[in-house]
């Protein structure tokens, strides 16, 4: 995965605000991407860019600075342009996930590029003509404008998500030692005993209540630590009930 990610270039064309350059660097680094290329930015990365990079300073320091888009794309076998709007000219159009998959597939062989246009007007038709396909993030049609860094973050995340999926990686819950069947039975018996002791519910209908409670706790599948907590609560409830009864008995005897 690391080798393929290292061959994916994020190319920013004539970026106006240096803060956006820093924010894109941050978005890239959080997703394991490292190749940032700048085409004729209005200003080179400055203090604001460093501040917005929030620790991705190394990407800014290594970023390529190019006079033209062809220079930034030199050696790339695949170029995909990010477009905020659907174009009347027909280009192959990709969803973010399909874009990520194609970039990763071809990055296994050589460099590829994802190109972002100007904050105000995006990519020109001449620049789009250099792209093999476009990627469009399906936003709310009534308010479809995404900040440059936000769009970069969405696409960077998709690239990492697809890369992890292809490697079979997934988030795993911490290991839990689940309560055994006999421990669950002991708990259900303790629960029934406690409910009876505190006078909860109708004793004549207790079997219906216990069936529902069994289903509830069986769905939850408590682990052994949680089971100990539940048993402790029941024991405390029984203890308070016994203490209350003893106090009443003492009062009556006196």
Structure characterization notes:
With about 250 residues, this protein is an alpha/beta fold. The chain has two domains: about 1-165, Alpha/beta knot (3-Layer(aba) Sandwich); about 180-254, Helicase, Ruva Protein, domain 3 (Orthogonal Bundle), CATH 1.10.8. The chain contains eleven helices and seven strands. The chain has a seven-stranded parallel beta sheet. The longest helix has 30 residues, at about 225-254. The chain is elongated. Its main location: cytoplasm. Belongs to the class IV-like SAM-binding methyltransferase superfamily. RNA methyltransferase TrmH family. It comes from Thiocystis violascens (strain ATCC 17096 / DSM 198 / 6111) (Chromatium violascens). GO terms for molecular function: RNA binding; tRNA (cytidine(32)-2'-O)-methyltransferase activity; tRNA (cytidine(32)/uridine(32)-2'-O)-methyltransferase activity.
| Low-pLDDT residue intervals, each spanning 5 or more residues | none
Query: What percent of the residues sit in helical stretches (DSSP H or I)?
Result: 40-55%
Element pattern in H and E: HEHEHHEHEEHEHEHHHH
Task: Give the full name of the CATH homologous superfamily of the largest domain.
Answer: SPOUT methyltransferase, trefoil knot domain
Number of helices: 11
The CATH level-2 architecture of the largest domain is identified as 3-Layer(aba) Sandwich
Structural class: alpha/beta
CATH class of the largest domain: Alpha Beta
Roughly what fraction of the amino acids lie in strands? 5-15%
Q: Could you state the oligomeric state of the chains shown?
A: single chain
Instruction: Give the termini distance in whole angstroms.
Output: 80 Å
Number of domains: 2
Let me know the number of strands: 7
Major pleated sheet: 7 strands, parallel
Rg is 31 Å
- Average predicted confidence as pLDDT: 90
Shape: elongated
Keywords: Cytoplasm, Methyltransferase, S-adenosyl-L-methionine, Transferase, tRNA processing
EC number: 2.1.1.200
Family: Belongs to the class IV-like SAM-binding methyltransferase superfamily. RNA methyltransferase TrmH family.
Catalytic activity: cytidine(32) in tRNA + S-adenosyl-L-methionine = 2'-O-methylcytidine(32) in tRNA + S-adenosyl-L-homocysteine + H(+); uridine(32) in tRNA + S-adenosyl-L-methionine = 2'-O-methyluridine(32) in tRNA + S-adenosyl-L-homocysteine + H(+)
